[in-house]
Specification:
Elements: E1 7-9, H1 15-25, H2 29-37, H3 43-51, H4 66-79, E2 82-86, H5 91-106, E3 110-114, H6 127-135, E4 140-144, H7 151-160, E5 163-167, E6 181-183, H8 199-211, H9 219-228, H10 235-248, H11 254-263, H12 272-289, H13 293-300, H14 304-339, E7 348-353, H15 360-371, E8 375-381, E9 386-392, H16 399-404, E10 412-415, E11 419-425, H17 429-443, E12 452-454, E13 457-458, H18 466-471, E14 487-500, E15 506-512, E16 517-522, E17 537-549, E18 552-563, E19 568-571, H19 578-583, E20 590-594, H20 599-603, E21 612-614, H21 618-622, E22 630-635, H22 640-648, E23 654-660, H23 673-686, E24 688-690, H24 691-702, H25 706-718, E25 722-725, E26 728-731, H26 744-759, H27 764-774
Parallel strand pairs: 1-12, 2-3, 2-4, 4-5, 5-6, 7-8, 13-14, 16-18, 19-23, 20-21, 20-22, 22-23
Antiparallel strand pairs: 8-9, 9-11, 10-11, 14-15, 14-17, 15-16, 17-18, 24-26, 25-26
Length: 781
C-alpha cells in the first residue's frame, strides 16, 4: 500500500443531468461534471457561466450610502477640495488605491493617496495619519480596502471636521464607524446582491457610479486586486477577473508591462496564475518590507523610464522578501518541532524578537502546509511590550469567530474565517495560545487535522483528450470557489515510472489501461518512486494540462498526490547495498522477520529491538501481529510453513523480500536419482571410502560440492544403506528396498531446495504469485 498525503473528497453526480448538459451545451462529460461541482444545476445558469451570456455588473447604487458618497465626492471635485485616498499596503489595497485615485484624477479632482507603513503605523487608519491629513488641508478622506473597524479614527475625523467615506470588504463588526458613508457589500440591510467583492471590487463600483458607466479601462487593475485577495471568483468577481485578464493581455499600463518583463511573463499569455504568482507577490513584497507607495506609483505612471526603474526596484525587494521568508520559515519549523509539537498543540502560536512582521502571514501559511494546524506567527517587540502577527487556518476552524472570543486581549485584530491579523501584549501570548488550543480541541476532531483535498471529479483515462482539456478553459479564470479542476484517476497500471530532474527529485509516470495512456509529472515527488512496486495499480490526483514539445501536443496530468490501495511486494533479493534500500523502507510500523539469530549481526544491522521478530518455531509466528506493517523478510525460513502461518492471519501493507543466506549451503542442483545411483555404485566398487580424506577430491572430480557428497552419505546412512565411522563410509548388505522420502535429511533438504527455488531464484512475478497463492496476502483494490 501507499497512503495518500491528504484526504480525497470526491463528489457524486446526477448522471442524467450530466447527459443533459453534454447534449444541450455541447460540452464533454468532464466539463459537465465540473459544472455540477460548482452547484451550477440550472442549464441557463451554466450557459451564462461558460459563455458570458448575461450582464455581469450590478447597479452600484444598490449599495447603502452610495448616492450619499457620490454626491459628496462630486461636491469636492467641483469645489476643488483636496481628497485623500487612504489605502492598504497589500496587492488588493494598492489596486484599490490606484482605481480610486485614477477615477478622481480623470474627473478633475485634487487628489492624493496615503498608505500607512506596516511597521511604524500598522494596518488600517490611525489617528496620527488623520491628524496629518487635517494639517495638510484635506477635508475628505476615502478609505479603500480598509476602515470598517476604524471606530476611533472615524470619531476623530468627525471631530476634526473631515468627512470620511469608508469603502471596504473586510468582515464588519457589531459596531460600525460613524462615517459620512460606508460602502460595503456586507453591511446589515444592504440591497447589493453580491457580498464577496474584494476591496478593489468595491472601489471599482464607486468608480462605476462616478463615471456613470462600467470603467473598462480600470478592469486590468481591478483584476489584479481581485485575484490577489483570494475572494471567490464567482459572480461579479468572475466578471472582473475574466474581463480584466483580457484587458491585461493588451494593457497599455506601463507599470504592468514593466513588471511582467522583470518577472519573465509574456503579456499576451497572462492568466490568473500570472497574477497570483508573478504580479501580486511583487506588489505585496514592497509593502511587506517598507512603504507601499512605489507600487501605486508603478501602476499610475505614464513615464516608461520611471516604470522600468520602479519595476526593477520592486523585483529586487521581492527577492529580498523571499530570502527573509525562507530563513524565518526554517526557524519557525524548528521552533514548532522543539517547543510546540503538533501532537500537543491543536493551534500553533509562535513568535520571536526581530522577525519581520511584514512576512509573518507567508510564514504562517508555510507552517499550515507543513503541520496542518491553525497557525499564528508573531513578531515580538520587547521595547513596546507588543506582539504583531498574522494567522492562517484550516477547514473547520473559523479564525475571525474564535479570535472574537478573545477580543479583550486583542486590542487590534481583523480578518476572515481563514486568515487574520492582530496585535496583542507580549504578556497575553500564552493566554491566547491556551484559549485557542482549548477552542480547537472542542471544535475539531482527529480527522480534521488530516489535510483535505477537495476533488472536482473522478475521470476515466478515455475521458482525457486534447479537446476536453481545452474546453476546461471555459471555466477559467480559476480561484476561490472556482478552483482549477483537481481530478482523480483511479486504479490504473503504470507503464513507465522514473525519477527525473538534475537532482532526481521529480517523478515521471505513464498511466494506462488496455487502450489509453496519459503521462504524469509530479514535481518534488521523486521520492515516491521508491514506494511503488512493479505492476502496482495506482490512483492519482492532479490537474490536467497540454504538453507541447517539438510541435507535438499531448494530454498530461500534473500530479499532486498518489495512492496504492493493495499490498505491495518489493524485491530486494541479492542487493548488496542494504543501507540504501533500507533507507527507503518507511520507519513507521516496520518489522524485521529473522529466522537465524546471527543474521542481523552478519549484515551489520541494528534496528530497534521492538522492530525485530525472531521466529524459530510455529508458535513464535502465532504470537506476531503484522497487520498493516512494513514487513522485511531478512533471511530464508527453514520451512515454508513458517511463512504460511505468519501471513495467513493478517496482511502487511508491504513485504520487502531480502532472503539473505549466511552460507551457500543449498545446492546449485538438487541431487537426482542418477547422482545417488552413481555414488552407490562407486561405494560398491570401493567397499569403503574415507570422506574426510578424499571427499573434496571426489566432489571436484564429479563437478559437485563437498556438501553434495556429505548429503548423499547422510541419506544412505539414515536408510541403513551404509555405516559411517569417523569419516569412513562402507556399504551395508541391503535387506529391503527403501524410498528416499524415508530419510528425514532428504525430506528436509528437498523442502529447503524447493523453498530456495521458489523464494530466492524465482522471478518477481513468480514470487508475488507465491505469496498470493499460499498466504492471506491478496490484491485488494
Amino acid at each position: 500500500m501507499l497512503k495518500s498525503r491528504t484526504r480525497w473528497i470526491i463528489p457524486t453526480y446526477d448522471e442524467l443531468l450530466i447527459d443533459r448538459y453534454v447534449n444541450e451545451l455541447n460540452i464533454p462529460p468532464l466539463v459537465a461534471k465540473l459544472l455540477m461541482n460548482r452547484e451550477l444545476n440550472d442549464i441557463e445558469q451554466a450557459r451564462d457561466f461558460l459563455f458570458d451570456k448575461s450582464e455581469p455588473f450590478h447597479d452600484p447604487f444598490l449599495f447603502n450610502d452610495m448616492k450619499k458618497a457620490i454626491n459628496r465626492i462630486q461636491q469636492a471635485i467641483e469645489k476643488q477640495e483636496p481628497i485623500l485616498v487612504f489605502g492598504d499596503y497589500d496587492a488588493d489595497g494598492v489596486s484599490s488605491t490606484t482605481v480610486m485615485l485614477q477615477v478622481l484624477k480623470d474627473l478633475g479632482a485634487d487628489a492624493d493617496f496615503y498608505i500607512p507603513n506596516r511597521f511604524t503605523e500598522g494596518y488600517g487608519p490611525n489617528e496620527e495619519a488623520f491628524q496629518l491629513a487635517k494639517d495638510q488641508g484635506f477635508s475628505l478622506i476615502i478609505t479603500v480596502d480598509t476602515g470598517i473597524a476604524a471606530l476611533n479614527e472615524a470619531a476623530l475625523a468627525k471631530k476634526l471636521g473631515i468627512d470620511l467615506i469608508i469603502t471596504d470588504h473586510h468582515e464588519p463588526g457589531p459596531e460600525l464607524p460613524d462615517a459620512l458613508a460606508i460602502i460595503h457589500p456586507k453591511t446589515e440591510g444592504t440591497t447589493y446582491p453580491f457580498p464577496h467583492l474584494a476591496g478593489v471590487g468595491v472601489a471599482f463600483k464607486v468608480a462605476h457610479a462616478l463615471y456613470g458607466h462600467v470603467p473598462e479601462h480600470l478592469l486590468d487593475v481591478a483584476a489584479i486586486g481581485t485575484i490577489a485577495d483570494l475572494v471567490p471568483l464567482v459572480g461579479e468577481n468572475r466578471a472582473i477577473a475574466k474581463r480584466g485578464l483580457r484587458k491585461l493581455r493588451t494593457t497599455n499600463r506601463l507599470g504592468v508591462i514593466a513588471l511582467c518583463k522583470v518577472a519573465g511573463s509574456a503579456l499576451k499569455d497572462i492568466t490568473e496564475e500570472t497574477v497570483g504568482f508573478a504580479i501580486a507577490p511583487r506588489i505585496n513584497a514592497i509593502g511587506r518590507l517598507g512603504d507601499a507607495d512605489p507600487a501605486v506609483d508603478l501602476l499610475m505612471t505614464e513615464d516608461k523610464e520611471e516604470a522600468k526603474a520602479l519595476a526593477e526596484e520592486i523585483d529586487s525587494i521581492n527577492k529580498e522578501r523571499q530570502t527573509i521568508v525562507s530563513k524565518m520559515t526554517e526557524e519557525a519549523i524548528a521552533m514548532v518541532e522543539n517547543h510546540y509539537p503538533p501532537a500537543d498543540n491543536s493551534v500553533l502560536i509562535i513568535g520571536k524578537e526581530g522577525w519581520n512582521s511584514g512576512v509573518v502571514g507567508i510564514v504562517a501559511s508555510r507552517l499550515v502546509e507543513k503541520f496542518y494546524r491553525p497557525t499564528i506567527v508573531l513578531s515580538y517587540d520587547s521595547e513596546k511590550g507588543m506582539a504583531k502577527g498574522s494567522a492562517r487556518s484550516i477547514v473547520g476552524f473559523d479564525l475571525f469567530k474564535n479570535l472574537s472570543t478573545c477580543k479583550e486581549i486583542l486590542p487590534h485584530f481583523g480578518g476572515h474565517p481563514m486568515a487574520a491579523g492582530m496585535t496583542l501584549g507580549l504578556e497575553d501570548v500564552d493566554e491566547l495560545r491556551n484559549r485557542l488550543n482549548q477552542l480547537a480541541t472542542d471544535q475539531l476532531t482527529t480527522e480534521d487535522f488530516i489535510p483535505v483535498t477537495l476533488l472536482d471529479a473522478k475521470v476515466e483515462l478515455n475521458e482525457v483528450d486534447l479537446s476536453s482539456i481545452e474546453q476546461l478553459q471555459l471555466l477559467a479564470p480559476f480561484g476561490m470557489n472556482n478552483p482549477k479542476p483537481k481530478l482523480t484517476i483511479e486504479n490504473v497500471s503504470l507503464s513507465n515510472l522514473r525519477k527525473i530532474g538534475s537532482n532526481q527529485n521529480h517523478l515521471k509516470i505513464t498511466l494506462n489501461d488496455e487502450v489509453n495512456q496519459l503521462d504524469g509529472v509530479g514535481f518534488g515527488m521523486g521520492e515516491i518512486a521508491h514506494h511503488i512496486s512493479p505492476n502496482a495499480n495506482v490512483s492519482v490526483i492532479g490537474e490536467l494540462a497540454i504538453n507541447e514539445w517539438n510541435n507535438i501536443r499531448k494530454p498530461q496530468i500534473f500530479l499532486q498526490d498518489l495512492e496504492i490501495k493493495h499490498w505491495q511486494l518489493f524485491d530486494v533479493r541479492g542487493l548488496k547495498s542494504r543501507s540504501k534500500w533500507l533507507e527507503q523502507v518507511p520507519t513507521v510500523n516496520r518489522r524485521f522477520v529473522v529466522f537465524q539469530p546471527s543474521t542481523l549481526s552478519d549484515l551489520g544491522l541494528q534496528p530497534p529491538e521492538e522492530e525485530i521478530l525472531l521466529v524459530q518455531s510455529i508458535e513464535d509466528y502465532k504470537q506476531v501481529d503484522i497487520m498493516g506493517c512494513n514487513l522485511i523478510l531478512i533471511d530464508l525460513p527453514s520451512n515454508s510453513e513458517y511463512l504460511h502461518t505468519l501471513l495467513d492471519r493478517s496482511q502487511p501493507d508491504r513485504i520487502y523480500a531480502h532472503f539473505y543466506q549466511q552460507n551457500d549451503h543449498f545446492f546449485s542442483t538438487f541431487p537426482t536419482r542418477d547422482h545417488f545411483k552413481w555414488y552407490y555404485g562407486f561405494l560398491a566398487k570401493r567397499g569403503t571410502f574415507n570422506l574426510n580424506k578424499y571427499g573434496n577430491d571426489l566432489a571436484k572430480h564429479r563437478g559437485w560440492t563437498k556438501e553434495t557428497i556429505e548429503f548423499m552419505s547422510q541419506v544412505f546412512f539414515e536408510l541403513d544403506f551404509v555405516t559411517i565411522n569417523n569419516g569412513l563410509i562402507s556399504l551395508n548388505p541391503v535387506k529391503v528396498k527403501r524410498d528416499f522420502e524415508e530419510s528425514s535429511t532428504y525430506c528436509q533438504k528437498q523442502g529447503q531446495f524447493t523453498l530456495e527455488n521458489e523464494l530466492l531464484y524465482s522471478s518477481y512475478q513468480e514470487l508475488k504469485a507465491w505469496f498470493e497463492k499460499r498466504t492471506n496476502v491478496v490484491c485488494k483494490v
